[in-house]
Specification:
Metallo-beta-lactamase, Chain A; 10 helices; WH-like_DNA-bd_sf; disordered N terminus; RibonucZ/Hydroxyglut_hydro; MBL fold metallo-hydrolase; B_lactamase-like_C; alpha+beta
Length: about 350
């Protein structure tokens, strides 16, 4: 994720809840904040009163501290009612990690978009060692330094330790669908780019958008390329999804997965679009001479990163490079050394 300019308004929003606590955003809508071990250090989850129970949106990562926090939430804030549905916005571990555990605990169905559910199931079945090998291969193609490749190959397994196995069945949700939650209707919107089919929930009567990772108040969501599709164009998907969200009212209260709730949806979308436009223009100037993705990304971000972050630097750099290639503004050329380079035409 990259820091971007802009200050979203949060007037009238309560202070963030502490671990194992919940605060009311609207009647029947609770804000929960679960801990993460690294940036952005937390993920927001939401409980919506659903008749004689609760609909939970997102579950946090599979860690003992997260389970303890949920134990406290379930004991103190459910008013003696069960969790009747678990909706996961997308497959990333900080959102889906404990969904299976919560579904099993409450005998509650799992609601996910099809591609998000299948992506999570695929990663849980994948050999963790092969995931690491694929990351190293992408780094090598991007021209990453040898110390980064050694670091990747020596890292701990990921995803499978972070995500409890999911239920073998799920209820498919999709953009355009209307969920009845208690006495209110919530329309589902899709956010692409950060994830393949991330679900956002808009409650028109409440004036609220549960925005997942699509629109964040102070950072730009990570929009990157992953090893299975190195020539993907996720930035186009991200910008298009955000443009579609401009159809929602400007005074919508945005509930992001990271950071605090805020007002100013349209302005924030414009800031994010301008941020990426600046990155694209900078990359074109950088690639006047041939550059590897690693070189171009480091120059684009204009700062150094530790080895754990280089994967994201390369992924986000590739997203911007691929956007430019797809529109004929850069050329992509494979070298005899197995490294791909990018340059301006002519």
């Amino acid at each position: 994720m990259t820091i971007s300019d802009g200050d979203a308004t949060r007037a009238g929003i309560p202070e963030a809840p502490g671990p194992g606590q919940a605060v009311a955003i609207r009647p029947g809508l609770l804000w929960i904040r679960m801990p993460l071990e690294g940036p952005p250090w937390h993920v927001n989850c939401w409980l919506l009163r659903d008749g004689a129970g609760w609909l939970l949106v997102d579950a946090g990562i599979n860690r003992p501290a997260t389970r303890l926090a949920w134990d406290s939430i379930f004991a103190e804030y459910l008013e003696g009612l069960p969790v009747t549905r678990v909706l996961v916005t997308h497959f990333h571990a900080d959102h889906v990690g404990l969904a299976g555990w919560i579904c099993d605990r409450w005998d509650a169905p799992l609601l996910m978009a099809r591609s998000e559910y299948l992506q999570a199931r695929l990663l849980l079945l994948e050999d963790p060692a092969s995931l690491i090998t694929e990351q190293a291969a992408l780094g090598q193609q991007a021209g990453a330094p040898p110390e980064y490749l050694r670091h990747v190959l020596g890292r701990r397994p990921f995803y499978r330790p972070d995500v409890v196995p999911l239920p073998l069945r799920h209820r498919r949700i999709a953009a355009g669908q209307v969920l009845r939650v208690g006495d209110a209707d919530w329309t589902l919107h899709v956010g692409r780019g950060h994830a393949p089919e991330m679900m956002l929930l808009h409650g028109r009567d409440a004036g609220v958008l549960i925005a997942a990772d699509q629109v964040l108040p102070r950072i730009s969501p990570y929009v990157g390329v992953f090893p299975p599709e190195p020539e993907a164009d996720p930035l186009a998907d991200f910008l298009d999804s955000n443009h579609r969200l401009l159809a929602l009212p400007e005074d919508t209260l945005v509930l992001p997965s990271h950071g605090d709730p805020f007002f100013g949806l349209h302005e924030r979308i414009k800031v994010l679009a301008a941020h990426h436009a600046e990155r694209l223009a900078l990359l074109e100037a950088i690639c006047v001479q041939p550059r590897t993705a690693y070189e171009a990304a480091r120059l684009m971000f204009q700062r150094d990163y530790d080895l754990d972050q280089i994967l994201f630097v390369i992924g986000e750099g590739l997203a911007h490079l691929n956007w430019l290639v797809a529109r004929g503004r850069l050329l992509r050329e494979a070298g005899a050394d197995g490294v791909t380079r990018y340059r301006c035409p002519g």
